[in-house]
Amino acid sequence: MTFAQLQIVAPVFIVGSAFAFIGLERLFPYKLHEKVFRDEFWSDLIGYGVFQSYVMAAVIGWLCHYIDTTSGLSRLHLVSDWPIWVQVVFFIITHDLVTYLIHRSQHNSKFLWRTHEAHHAPAHVDWLSGIRSHSLEILLYQTAEYLPVILLGAAPEVPLYKSMANATYGMYIHANLNWRMGKFIYFLNGPELHRWHHSEDDPAAYDKNYATKFTIWDLLFGSIFWPKKPAVKYGAGDPNFPRGWIKQHLYTFRPFAAKPTESAKENDLPPGQMQPEN
């Protein structure tokens, strides 16, 4: 498939996947009686999914281009001769490891947690809630994702293939789907694990299941939590977390508490997280 064709196929594929997950959630619900148009549906879809995605794509594209123009590394064509499918697989695997490490750091630093708390705030976890990520978090993750693709001289089709994989798998692991991966769960992530990452049901689940696509990272680094029961309650446990894209962005920049009171810990960190020294 040519680059021009992929530019048309990629957004159609992503939108089509969203509609597919809406239907699948109705047929195979993990949590019963969840609404399609649940609380803050339009805020997540329009604010995070449309407006922020468009703006951040332009910002990150400019930043990556500027760094490449300044460094000139892409002219070395370090991976250009690889088959495109090998490039895609290589960058999916390596980026997933980087994502795991960044994600884990966000849960262990009160500063980085501020960029991640919006993602954990929803009380309803579904295909759309995975889109809710602060723009600073998107800047961090997607620069780490696409800058190496450009600097190593990957084919222009690679970012488009990756965007389809990322969007679809992100919707899948957050989806309200009662699907079991069987033995594949030891390698590939699924809703049965990732929904526990968002849960408040069991303190043993706090700061576990960081992986996005490959469960192997949680297995290797000892951060997997796999109970044989469904998660029920979700959210970051901050009663002050505001509604709406604008207020949620501004809330990130609130002052840290002067003293490490119990309420400050609850507002600045994930549920059950110890106060980090940094």
**Which percent band covers the strand fraction?**
under 5%
The rounded Rg comes to 19 Å
* SS-derived structural category: mainly alpha
Number of helices: 10
Total beta strands: 0
Overall pLDDT level = 90
Question: How many angstroms separate the termini?
Answer: 48 Å
Q: Provide the succession of SSEs.
A: HHHHHHHHHH
How would you sum up the global shape? globular
Q: Estimate percent helicity.
A: 40-55%
Major sheet:
none
What does this structure look like?
By secondary structure, the protein is mainly alpha-helical. 54% of the residues lie in helices and 0% in strands. The chain has ten helices and no strands. The chain has helices at residues 3-27, 41-71, 84-106, 110-120, 135-151, 157-174, 191-197, 216-220, 245-251, 262-268. Helix 2 runs parallel beside helix 5 and helix 3 crosses helix 6. It is globular. Residues 272-278 have low confidence and may be disordered.
Summed up:
The chain is mainly alpha-helical and 278 residues long. The protein has helices spanning 3-27, 41-71, 84-106, 110-120, 135-151, 157-174, 191-197, 216-220, 245-251, 262-268.
Topology of helices and strands:
Layout: H1 3-27, H2 41-71, H3 84-106, H4 110-120, H5 135-151, H6 157-174, H7 191-197, H8 216-220, H9 245-251, H10 262-268
